[in-house]
Amino acid sequence: MKWRTAFIIGIVLISLLGTAHAKASAPQITPEWTYKVNTEVHAIKVGPNGQYVVAGGKNGRIYYFSWDGRPIWDYLTGGFIASLDIAKDGKNIVAAVGYDTNRDGSPEYGKIIYLDDRKHVLWTYTSQTKEFFSSVSAGQDRIYVGSEGKIIRFSYTGSRISTNLVGVDLPEVDTYGNYLVVSHSPWFYRRDDNEYSKLFLFSGTFLKSTREFDDAVVGTAISEKYYAAVTGLHLDPSGKWAGSEDYYVYLYRLSGEFVWRYKLDAPAFDVDIAPTGRVIAVGDTGGNVYVFNENGYLLWKENLGSPVYAVALSQDGNYLAVGTKDGTVALYRVPGVIQILTDPSDARVYLMENGAYTEIGETPMAFTVLPGTYTVKVTREYYHTKVVEVSVSSGDVLKEYISLTLANGTINVYSNVDGAQVVIDGIPVGKTPLLNYTIPAGNHNVTVRADGFCGEYREEVSINSPAPVSVAARLEPCPAKLEINEPSGAEVYVDGTYYGTAPTSISIQPGSYAVVLKKEGKKDYTTTVSLRPGETRELTPDMQIDPVYYGIRVAAGIAVLIVLLILVMTYRKYNFRKSYKELLATIDSVRRENIPEEASEILNGLEGKRTAIEEAYRRGDRGSLSRLREEVAAEVARIKELKGQYRSMKDRISRDIMSLLNQPAAGTPSEGGGSNEK
Fold first, then answer.
1. pLDDT by residue (tens digit) across 155-177?
2. What is the pTM of this model?
3. Which strand ranges, in their side-by-side order, compose the sheet holding 442-449?
């Protein structure tokens, strides 16, 4: 049969797809109970308040479990249980059973079975044709059954009321109030069916809206405010199961407004929504079960290790039942989420469990818990620890905002003097550099001081965050003193700077210095002096005599004497020659003059001396030349004397002649006399 071939292929492929799934990010939530049945669980429902669970599957049995997971009874229908629902009274159960072949080989037609919680069959309905009932949904006053292109309405007494044809071959139908949402059954498709990706929303018998998706719509659910849809695989025209590999759960308002969607890890298989719409559950072929709140917040995600074929929420939304391919039936309490937000962030969060705190993460964070009241501790370095009690209900996202109060901060104290003492609020706390010192929040006075440094550094700091506060203290060193008293007159140089002559007292900053003393006749004295702040150091150098200096002085004296001697000799030689020249020049000058005849004999004597002068010069006879100088000088003086006498006599004779010439003749009147001339 066509549907059976498709079903087998689909189950195999879905199972293979289910082996690849993402790891759930939410914490593990343990079930209230689990039970393993010997069949694939294709349909499941949970009582109004979680007081029982009813499940059915491939083997055609309906299983009824008590609130604590005990199997109370099971009922063999003889067919394939495609769908289950619980009547609005919360007790009776309705099941849609697919056809199969009886043991005697006769065909079994589709059947609707209505029974109570004690396994009493209240009524059944068997189709009159070879027909498969793909789904069932119990409304407020009607039971809706999907069957091969149509939706059949039944009363709760089992009478068939009406039949509406829809554009879906094997419809999945869910009802709430007057609304019906219809899509394909997740189990069976026909090759020639092109309606696999559509969803239909009815209000009564009126088609309110149609939506089309990228993949097959394999599950629907409806509540008083919303309807949900999930997408999965479909049969393509070649008979292969296919899909986009992007599978989603969608939520819409009954008015048709899109609310949100969430990308699933694997093709979906089933979806359910609590009547109030505040909780939505999804199962996929990857073995994942998802629980969302109506705002699309993922409250919980867990991988159960086997494809999740069926999910169901209780009417109050506090319980979730799941059925898997490997036959697991489990009941969970729908968890809630606690969000811890702190100021500042990155605080550590601890949850009280079994009387002890367990660290669960850092803020901002959210963690999934079962409904209840919890003690939460929040700690952060440098801040006061805070403990709060929080209560969370199923489906809640409880946000807890915690403002942490600063308890301590840190301070770093640096100084230009390593090892300077640090005093905070009058209490010595260490030496510089003081790093990451824990200090209470608030205002504090910091003082830094050191021996040998004049004054101290003070600063007021405010600790109002855990970030380190830094203090950079600068201390001024007390000046040092260098005293140099000996040797007197020595030139003093410190690091190349001239500081006068000894004795001297130099005020200088602490440190290491090169000191040089210089004094004539002494070797230079060089030393290095290290001065501490405030230290007075007297330097008494022993300057050694410099033999090189005195050797140079003696050599210089001898050189001077030699030079002087040379100069003297040169001078004497010069004077000797000069005297020789002068004597000859004197004799020549006398010869050129007009001299009286009386001096001729003396002049001839001078000419005779010329030969003696030249001979004395040739011999270098300074004594003879000196004697001749004196003789020449005496004779020149005698000639000058005679010349002077001759000139005087000549002048007298001239005057006498002129006097005679100027006397008047006899009888001639004298000049100026009167005349008797008439």
1. 999 999 988 888 777 788 999 98
2. 0.65
3. 427-431, 421-424, 442-449, 457-463
